[in-house]
Structures are given as structure tokens and as C-alpha cells.
Specification:
Length: about 300
């Protein structure tokens, strides 16, 4: 169902549930993602699979769908020989596919256009390290065209997500300024620091006075790091907190596979809510089954 309220208004009213990992659902549908473009490849040759994956999360109760544009960049498409105008159309398609899946459901569903970090384009695990050797100005120039194209496609919010570095967060906020679409900013973290090593209090402070930012938080991190990070984000910014960790497994960039055990526990949402989280879900390897459980828990919350 197309939302009647803004996402910011919904967050003022209580907890809103995000979807989970798009790539793991695509793999469950039989898709091959062994490509530098990752799930974004399917914007070219399997858009129906992306829409089906979104629909699986709608059925699980997700109220926000994050688009398949995380790893979709003009530079990445150019390396595959995709002309710039076609790349723009593919970015817009990512929003359209999520919107269609959301409108087919019987509850309000918002669309968040994913803006992944510079490191996602490199496809070498750099989004878990940051510090690319690029200036804030260079990163702003990289992000701005994609942000402008995604904003023009009409999402409800831009998800500036999996940001490993406060410098890149500054660049993203600059690039999104004036685009006409609200944003959330979420860092990938390790303990109480960004992946690049900056204290989270300093990193979150960048968004504290930005009216365009409707939520601040963390994603694609170990679930064990979430509770304290949510507290810091709420305290520093006074904004609703967004939190969607991965399954707890670790990404091996060289082998291009996940290792270790899953530790994602939907019941952790109680602590998140107490600390100030209003936008909750899962990232890599978090399935529709886990999101369904999360939905049940948030619905039952007092």
C-alpha cells in the first residue's frame, strides 16, 4: 500500500520495521550473485527477481523496503559497458521495483533508495574499512550524481547506509543536501567506533543538526555491537535511531563468502526500542523469517 504519511511522521508514532538482506533472499530464489555488481546486476537481467524478493519481505511484515541500488553506480555500470542514460534508468528502476512490491501489500510500505559507500563500488570489502585515500570533496563528487538520480525517481527516503567513515558521511550529507528527499544515515561499526576508527559520538554528531536527516544509526555490523551504538546515536542526536545489523557472520572479501555463525536475535529489538530505536530490521543474511518474528515482537510491544 502506498503510504499516506511521511516516514518521519510514522517514526514519531512508534516503531517501523525494515526489511532484511536482499542478497540472501535473491540467492534463496536461485539467483547467481557472483558478480562485481552483486544484486545490482539483476536490475539489468532479472528485475522480476528483485521485485519478488521485495515482496517476500512485505509478506513478512516489513514496512520499509531498501532498494537494490546499494552497489549500483555509474562507474560500476560503465565498466560493464552500460551507457550513462541506461544506468540512470536502471537506478530509477530500483525504486520502481520496490514501490510496486510495496503497493501490492495491505499496509503502508515506504521505499528507501539505497546509497552505498564508495567502497561498495570497488567490490573488494572496502566498505568495511573506509579510508579510501579520497578527499571529502572527491567523495561528494562521486556520490552526487547517483543521489540526484535516485531522488528524482521518487523514493520516500534515501538510505545513506553502511558508511564506514565519518569523512564519507560528511560527503554523503553534502551530496544529498537540497535533493528534496529526507535521508537516514547509518554507519557500519566495530564496537563504539566506525570501521575507520572514529568514535561513534563524533560520527553521529555530524547529523545532529541536519533537518534533512530523519534517523541516524547503524547497519551491517555485528548484532553484539548494536545496543550501545543505539544509545550513543540517540543521546548525541536526539533523533529516531535506525538499526539493522547483519546476521553476525563475517564477510570474507577475498573468498566472497560469509563465515562464522549467525547470532541475530529478533528479541534484541526490546533493548533497541528502550534505547531510542524506531526503525528496526536486518541487513546481510537476515531472512524474511527473522523479519516476520521482528514484526510480531514490535506489534506486541506496549
Amino acid at each position: 500500500m502506498k503510504p499516506a504519511r511521511t516516514l518521519a511522521a510514522a517514526l514519531d508514532g512508534g516503531t517501523v520495521v525494515l526489511d532484511g538482506g536482499l542478497s540472501n533472499q535473491l540467492k534463496a530464489q536461485g539467483c547467481d550473485l557472483s558478480d562485481a555488481l552483486w544484486s545490482a546486476r539483476l536490475l539489468v537481467d532479472g528485475p522480476q527477481q528483485i521485485e519478488a524478493a521485495h515482496a517476500a519481505y512485505v509478506r513478512a511484515g516489513a514496512q520499509v523496503l531498501i532498494t537494490s541500488s546499494y552497489q549500483a553506480t555509474y562507474e560500476g555500470f560503465a565498466r560493464r559497458g552500460v551507457p550513462r542514460d541506461e544506468a540512470s534508468a536502471l537506478l530509477a528502476r530500483s525504486v520502481e521495483l520496490a514501490r510496486r512490491a510495496g503497493e501490492a501489500g495491505d499496509r503502508e510500505v515506504w521505499v528507501a533508495a539505497s546509497v552505498g559507500p564508495y567502497g561498495a563500488m570497488l567490490a573488494d570489502g572496502s566498505e568495511y574499512r573506509g579510508r579510501y585515500g579520497r578527499s571529502v570533496a572527491e567523495l561528494e563528487r562521486f556520490h552526487r550524481p547517483r543521489i540526484e538520480t535516485l531522488a528524482a525517481a521518487g523514493p520516500d527516503v534515501l538510505a545513506l547506509e553502511t558508511v564506514p567513515d565519518a569523512d564519507e558521511a560528511e560527503a554523503l550529507l553534502r551530496a544529498a543536501d537540497g535533493c528534496g528527499v529526507p535521508v537516514w544515515l547509518s554507519y557500519s561499526i566495530a564496537g563504539e567506533r566506525t570501521r575507520a576508527g572514529q568514535p561513534l559520538a563524533d560520527a553521529f554528531a555530524l547529523a545532529a543538526d541536519e533537518d534533512q536527516v530523519i534517523a541516524v544509526g547503524i547497519n551491517c555490523c555485528d548484532p553484539a555491537d548494536t545496543d550501545r551504538a543505539v544509545e550513543i546515536a540517540a543521546t548525541v542526536t536526539g533523533k529516531p535511531v535506525v538499526v539493522y545489523p547483519n546476521s553476525g557472520e563475517q564477510w570474507d572479501a577475498a573468498a566472497r563468502r560469509w563465515r562464522g555463525d549467525a547470532t541475530f536475535d529478533p528479541s534484541r529489538v526490546r533493548a533497541w526500542q528502550t534505547a531510542g530505536a524506531r526503525l528496526v530490521g536486518g541487513c546481510c543474511r537476515v531472512t524474511p523469517t527473522a523479519i516476520a518474528e521482528l514484526t510480531t515482537l514490535t506489534t506486541a510491544s506496549p
